[in-house]
Design goal:
alpha+beta; GMP Synthetase, Chain A, domain 3; 4 helices
């Protein structure tokens, strides 16, 4: 059962998630208008995100990160500290890993499993 403070912090995390999702999508619109962004709130209130983009085709993880992170330069640093994990996938990798509807694995309910 959640206490009032837990409920309030989860509400704040949900607000932060919506705000960051919008900021990230706005930043990525120019970088790759077809990119799909999914996020999940961790139990600590921070966010894990998954970005699916055809721009990652044929690139290793370092090349993907070097291409991706500069697109988020406009996101204010006080907001960026809430991003704890970012999974960068091609559409094919996402399909293989998550099926037709890619999601982020981290959820409060099964975090410790």
């Amino acid at each position: 059962m959640q206490s009032e403070s837990d409920s309030g912090s989860m509400e704040a995390a949900g607000t932060r998630q919506s705000r960051l999702d919008a900021l990230i999508r706005e930043c990525l619109a120019e970088w790759d208008p077809e990119a799909i962004v999914r996020s999940a709130i961790r139990p600590d209130g921070k966010l894990d995100i998954t970005v699916i983009s055809g721009r990652f085709e044929g690139r290793d993880s370092r090349e993907r990160e070097a291409d991706f992170w500069p697109a988020l330069d406009p996101v204010p640093k006080p907001e960026m500290v809430y991003l704890t994990y970012c999974l960068l996938l091609t559409p094919e990798e996402a399909e293989r890993s998550f099926g037709a509807e890619p999601v982020v694995a981290a959820t409060g309910e099964n975090w410790d499993e």
